[in-house]
């Protein structure tokens, strides 16, 4: 806990306080009742005759302040649900005070709403807005903006157990790092953000200040657009699929000043999810008539662990394009018993803004359900045509024609990118760089950048943080004997006896580390070895590391040298192995060798940690082990931008069968009708799984390739496959046994996971294989399967059987295996909104195995994820029926998790 707190509340160096700028604008924004309006948008245009747009937002007290050069400006005040206010102001010297009172917005209703039987006007508005959503996204060719973000994160409550267990650490955090339950963690960030079509975002943090620790990363809503079909995993109201998830109600229209002195009509639309919960929004969205762009919005959603988010955007016209210059995000909820709330405000000031020349001409959209346009185009009329040329010829398009037109434009642009040798599989390219001076900016610098003035409470919090920072400074940098007591820290490389018990990582220099794993941390038990203690020592050397920022590094190459030792108290023996490896980008070479014990199934169907519990507490020894003296060489590579992964291994080993270390092993708890089983297994295919000591040379070759186009995102130079649009993975494996064994084995596996709807997925894995030559092989060479015989299920939820005995149907002949898992956002009990809101999710699954003896073994099951919502959300409960040759064999229950405990 202590290291965690030290990381969370790392001290920020802040210089002395200084004066603000000399000229500008400040004031207070209130309602007609005199209440302050927090986070209202203040848009500044000018100075005349320039058209540059800047701005700020009011703080929680309704105050605003912005430094401006002398000149004449037009100031626009905006707040969701209130009438915009425009003011002209002349700034000559000093700060001009401009207080504003804003009136609540008055709406007028469309006449069509009063006519019985007519469709709600919201639907024709939304059809047009949806048809034009991609048009609005493509309007922006590129921009450069300065983004000011202020956040406040507050831990409201901790579980009683945590408060009792970590009371001392919490007191230290309160004293040393200004952290306390109920007190907000304040953060300010100023970043330079650039965007260019089609998908490139670059963010450089130039200033960061925190009242207690380091800066908070922008959340998933930042740099995301509601013109996208989904945002943060939820269906946007402007998605082409929106009508399947939402109902819309028209609430009225109002008029306000727009760009170039022209007024605009804005309609308020109520967004009503058909079933509220994870993956959808509810709230209101304001759409500008005729242009069908977003004017503003206030929408709420909930994520998969029950934390709710409220998003507020207010847009301003930038060169005729409505952009979200003022953004607010609120989040609240609890996770693992920790209750917290967060508030984020974001203000954008554009210094460069270029409109896509193909989208300069505006387009009128006709709703064909209300009345078709004067001319409707066919697919042949659109195919191969330039968008801007068609727009010049015809100003009005149907919603269908507009979607076809934009798709044709994107198709042509994609082909042009291919011709320029650009990677069209990259859907988004993001980078984040932190300036080396970001955390050392003076107050003078901050006051010149800050878009939102600090509140009284925030000033007080920063002053306390500043005083703590000064206490931590070295009083005499050149005198090593004069340091503050709070700075007396042990060298990270200094040895202490306690490190032998807990394990430690010594940083030897910039490129190398020595990693020690204590045997105490790996104490296990099984009936073959008895109690075991395993320790490791590893030297890691990284000759080349590309530093993207303080928090992001890309390792270009890495050397590892190490060894693992394991003492078996039951057998009174020491076993272990050594390892040497080299990795350069995606290519890895590893050499290992020694004596060690392995499960017959190399995929470890039960972890050593879990097997220790089942053996000691429940008198069930599930793990079956054999000994191997081996030398192994493995090479792996991922060419073609990781679309193909090749792995080759050659192993020479002497394999020995083992028995339990004693026949009269006594369990901790002596269960009636239970007894420890021998290490030799029972198998339906062979009379005995025993084998003599023998030499085996094994060649193992694997190729895994993604079939079809895989889409990627790039984050700080690292390519990451998009899980929501990944390609099927085909894996081919060939294994050849030589020496005292003689066999050839081949198998193929096809796996895929894809979305079937919002927060719904279908996952499958299909495998088949056979021993092409089975002249001589032993039980370790068999094809084993991911079974389970304990009430607790862990491992891959897709490819693991729930009730299958671990080795009963292992085969030395042939097999076919299939796994299907369907995850549902809304199925049976999740039809109820409350169930979805607390984070429960349902799934159905089927597991099938065909071997010469398995008799079409099948499992049909139902699972409920989030067994203990918001406390232990990663657990699930399952009920499974067992079948063989279509005959019912029994029912079982499992408590499961996707987390792995132990190794």
Automatic annotation (TrEMBL):
One Pfam family linked to the record: CarboxypepD_reg
Span of the signal peptide: 1-18
Basic and acidic residues composition bias: residue spans: 473-487
Protein name: Carboxypeptidase-like regulatory domain-containing protein
Keyword Protease: yes
Stretches assigned to coiled coil: 395-422
Organism: Spirosoma taeanense
Residue ranges of the region described as Disordered: 473-498
UniProt entry keywords in alphabetical sequence: Carboxypeptidase, Coiled coil, Hydrolase, Protease, Signal
GO MF term list: carboxypeptidase activity
Keyword Coiled coil: yes
